[in-house]
Write a structure and sequence with these properties.
mainly beta, two-stranded antiparallel ribbon, elongated, 14-stranded antiparallel β-barrel, Porin, 24 strands
Length: about 425
């Protein structure tokens, strides 16, 4: 048993390192388990593997023995932009660099008593990575040419079985840390060339909030699930910010940018900020139609309305600014099916998601041009003895979105390029499970 626990701790430690490389094309990364992802992440009423620590921790009461689940996701997003020639008069285009980001989902569950189960999960439910090609000339570089936000949750939870083990209630804590990095350019006011390059980077203070889950299984066919993760405020205090003069000595504009940089207090700055993450609520029902076929439907609600702005407070007040977001609450409808092709050996899964965006038109920008999305997923799981492996694929297809409202710019700031954004992401997941 001691060897098993040592192995578990090593795997969880590895998962803590991976998020330093992780990001995604959007704030919400709902892909926390490979099997769940293959079902469109419709998993709140199923939650019968380690990823229950995210989808519904009450599910661990219905697991037997001890379980270790390790999931790795490769997320390959692509965003394209085309300028609105009729409004701006320009014909600029742009697209993000081709890159695959890595996101983890690692979990350990066990039973402390017959009625009490314990689990801990390490996963990354919120992330953002938008890195544009040709950053020196990209039309949106004054807003952002590279942004990376990585958030890691560590969630320990206890689940209590009751009512002859048809009902389970779980309580947990979401301990989160976030890393933010933002790059943007300031242009010379008359020459229109890049003058200053701003880099902001830092890691937030840890934030601890409660989470909970409920699962009710009145019979072998029917299951109901509820999940809740509380909203978070990630605080950054006195983090690094660097201002660099990108005009070479002797070039036109060098004197202006040098004087501006000196007047702002030099290259090395410090910054404080807050980044707000939404609450997540999910209600779901799962039904077994036959011995081999089961389906689930989830309704997921994100409480984004308190994410109003990202305020950047520099030590030099002249640099202070606020990036407006004004997000609204959003919802998702998730549907998934699972077919026991060869019972106790091979399962086939498929899913569909309709995902509404919380982002108003005025906030559609190079930082994150979000839109309503439709996701399509499939996968399979293979089990042999104490081991199982799952492979999943999800295609995330965003609607085209133009940040024009009533024939005008939705955001009057001329630094925000006006035009049409489109996005797609391919997500490949692999999960490994060991049961002991």
């Amino acid at each position: 048993m001691r060897r098993n626990m040592t192995f578990v701790l090593l795997v969880l430690g590895l998962a803590m390192v991976l998020p330093q490389l992780a990001a995604a094309a959007g704030f919400s990364i709902y892909e926390a388990g490979s099997r769940a992802t293959a079902m469109g992440c419709a998993f709140t009423a199923t939650a019968d593997d380690g990823s229950a620590m995210f989808y519904n921790p009450a599910g661990i009461s219905f697991l037997s023995g001890s379980n270790l689940d390790v999931n790795i996701f490769g997320i390959a997003p692509k965003i394209k932009f085309s300028e609105a020639t009729d409004l701006s008069g320009g014909t600029a285009t742009g697209e993000t660099k081709s890159k695959t980001y890595i996101s983890p989902g690692t979990y350990y569950t066990t039973h402390l008593t017959n009625d009490t189960a314990f689990g801990v999960g390490v996963y990354a439910p919120f992330g953002l990575g938008v890195k544009w090609q040709d950053p020196e000339t990209w039309i949106g570089r004054q807003v952002s040419y590279d942004v990376q936000i990585q958030t890691i949750y560590v969630t320990p939870a206890l689940s209590f079985a009751m009512c002859d083990e048809v009902l389970a209630v779980a309580v947990g804590l979401d301990v989160a840390v976030q890393k933010l990095e933002l790059h943007r350019n300031t242009l010379h006011p008359t020459l229109g060339i890049n003058a200053l390059d701003t880099e902001i980077s830092g890691t937030s203070e840890p934030d601890i909030t409660p989470s909970m889950g409920v699962m009710f299984r009145p019979n072998d066919k029917l299951s109901f699930g509820l999940m809740y993760h509380m909203a978070k405020t990630m605080n950054y205090e006195n983090k690094d910010a660097t201002l660099a003069n990108v005009i070479a000595p002797g070039q036109d504009g060098y004197a202006w940018s040098s004087q501006l940089l000196a007047g702002l207090g030099g290259s090395d700055q410090t910054i404080s900020s807050q980044f707000k993450l939404p609450s997540i609520k999910s209600a779901a029902v799962s039904y077994r139609f036959s011995e081999k076929l089961r389906g689930e439907v989830d309704y997921v609600y994100f409480g984004w309305d308190h994410f109003d702005e990202l305020r950047l407070d520099f030590t030099n007040d002249d640099l202070d600014q606020a990036i407006e977001f004004n997000y609204e609450d959003a919802w998702q409808l998730r549907c998934g099916v699972e077919y026991d092709w060869k019972p106790d050996q091979i399962k086939l899964m498929a899913g569909y998601v309709y995902d509404t965006t919380p982002q108003p038109l005025a906030a559609v920008s190079p930082l994150l041009p979000d839109s309503d999305r439709q996701d399509y997923s499939l996968g399979f799981a293979y089990k042999s003895g104490n081991y199982d492996v799952t492979v999943s694929y999800m295609a995330v297809i965003g609607d085209e979105r133009t940040n024009i409202e009533n024939g005008n710019r939705a955001n009057p700031d001329p630094a925000y390029p006006v035009g049409t954004y489109s996005s797609v992401a391919n997500i490949l997941g692999v999960g490994f499970g060991y049961h002991f």
